[in-house]
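**Folding the chain**
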Amino acid sequence: MQTESQRTVCNSGGNTAAWPGFTFAYRLKTRRFNLAKYTTDHA
């Protein structure tokens, strides 16, 4: 994320944005979620 935001106006200090790009690109990357790749615990 830090590398992608270097080309934007948000490059002042640390970028804490959830996603520095377009929302449709975020949606494409996160539309399929494989829970088996993660370790989960019940709260």
Remarks:
- Residues 1-11+18-32 form one domain.
- The helical segments are 2-5, 23-30.
